[in-house]
Amino acid sequence: MKKDKGVYDKVCEYIRPHLNKDMEVLELACGSGQLSFNLSKHTKSWISTDFSEQMIQEAKKRGEYEKLTFETADAVALSYSYEKFDCVLIANALHIMPKPDEAMKEIYRVLKPNGTLFAPTFLWKEGKQRKMIKSLMSILGFKMYQEWDKKEFEDFIKEYGFSVVEWNCASIYAGKVPDILS
Fold first, then answer.
1. By Cβ atoms counted within 10 A, which residue in 42, 137, 141, 147 is the most buried?
2. Residue 121 has what pLDDT?
3. 125: CB partners within 8 A, 6+ apart
4. What percent of the chain has pLDDT over 90?
């Protein structure tokens, strides 16, 4: 993770201005807390979750912050109440989830109307190198369930009730579309 610190720092730089001290944030697939520690100090509360208890233990070893809580949770079956969070962050994880559609339904459920979703995600570019890179990743044991390009990922985000507010090379910033039918 240390070798990717520059990428995580860039993601934090992009997200930080969109946070404020009144926000309650849920982070899914937090890993060892690469974004959690940096960003949680800019919010009211921050719950960082990961499917892996081992990753949560690694994150807790890095220290404690007053506003930051680590919990084991499955992004496709969250225990949090409807419309609890102002913001949800799921960084670099949707493409490695077997059921990203289920995660998106849960994100929509726990996010307040007009809430914010940050979903920095690995996207594929078309070209000759794609096949070679995929083969190398497979050899290294990295399993990807989804292979989106920019347009496909934007369509995926919109399919689950979000409007894409802004694209950035490091992140996608999406807002929950208010449910005007209820």
1. 42
2. 82
3. 149
4. 59
**At which residue do the structure tokens 């809430």 appear?**
115
pTM for this predicted structure: 0.84
Task: Provide the residue type at 21 as one letter.
Answer: K
Residue type at position 52: S
Which tokens belong to 181? Answer: 């039918």
Tokens 């949707």 correspond to: 94
Burial class of 44 by CB neighbour count within 10 A (0 to 12, 13 to 18, 19+): middle
Q: Identify which of 113, 41, 109, 38 has the alpha carbon closest to the alpha carbon of residue 75.
A: 109
Alpha-carbon dihedral sign for residues 111, 168, 11, 171: positive
Number of neighbouring beta carbons within 10 Å of residue 128: 7
Site of tokens 């996010």: 111
